[in-house]
Amino acid sequence: MDMGNIAVTETLKRETSANIIQSHGLSSFCDYLKANKCKNIIVMTGAGISTSAGIPDFRTKGTGLYDNLQKYNLPYPEAIFDIQYFKRKPEPFYTLAKELYPGSFEPTPSHRFIKLLEDKQLLLRNYTQNIDMLERLAGISDDLLVEAHGTFHTAKCVGPKSDEDEDVDIPILGCGKTFEDKDIKQKILDGQVPECPDCKGLVKPDIVFFGEQLPERFHSMIHKDFKQCDALIVIGTSLSVAPFSGLIHLVKDNVPRLLINREVCGTQDFMGRGFDFECEERIRDALFLGTCDEGVLQFQEEMGWQDDDLSQLLQKTKIS
Ligand code: OAD
Ligand code: ZN
Questions:
Q1: Which of 56, 102, 107, 140 could join 134 in a cystine, given CB atoms 3.0 to 4.6 angstroms apart?
Q2: Which residues line ligand 1 (CB under 6 A)?
Q3: Would the pTM of this model clear 0.70, i.e. be above it?
Q4: Cβ contact 226:218 at 8 Å
């Protein structure tokens, strides 16, 4: 027996085993899922999974929503989702809400992919920043969904409109009356500002504006979920809005992460826990650079899943 060779082999083994996945590619991530029989996958999503349905994202230059709000004369683009601005001038938000109101768009192959993970009992949770409700329409169960930036599904009274010239922070509390989507939908579609019948306050859909807390469900779910997560998939987000962007740091150190997106993001060093798609030692993060729909299709092929629905949907959907 050659002890020298054994020592070399042992060193090699140690070096190889430091890698969590074998390369930074999607196929290595899928190999890991198969080898480790992962069943607690968390999927984090953003506006990029809905662009092929015809809904613009926020920050893509030229087509993103924030580059196309000139007609609203906003002081800065994000003001359209700023609670303080809304209390003074709610009209721009409602005009946009009318254009984007859920109901006129169909789920994309990426939504269908998340539903497929659920059907295969591999989905621990889908944390979405989207407010288009396409996850619900794709059939993803309520209990597997965390709508981190809220939803159009419900709404509440946030009190009366304030004086436009008021320059102190305005209290947001309304009379507390809550509404369902069906109570205000028609008003919004008719181009009106929905009003609380009890106090005449503004009725605002429960989507999270800048300056508002994320839903209680987000905070109560993340700690248990991310501890339990055995693989993380991030699709179609620029990861530029906290606290959502910080979720990728919450999974355990040895849990592999996959980003499917048109651009690289999330790499900023947060105590060394941002994505790293370049390191040669201890490879953990995988990247698919391309459209979300192409990424999920390749994922499905790598896993050997036959899902005619997904392929058909992909053919029907214009890849953006
Ligand atoms: P962004 O517009 O910031 O990012 C969308 C990401 O998806 C970008 O990196 C795009 O390059 C990518 N993308 C777009 N279409 C794609 C496609 N078909 N295939 C692959 N990648 C694609 O949107 P979010 O990250 O979702 O908050 O934005 C986060 C939050 O910022 C939103 O929830 C919203 C906004 O302010 C609120 O409304 C409260
Ligand atoms: Zn009220």
A1: 107
A2: 46-48, 51-52, 57-60, 64, 81, 129, 149, 208, 236-238, 240-241, 261-263, 265, 291-292, 320
A3: yes
A4: no
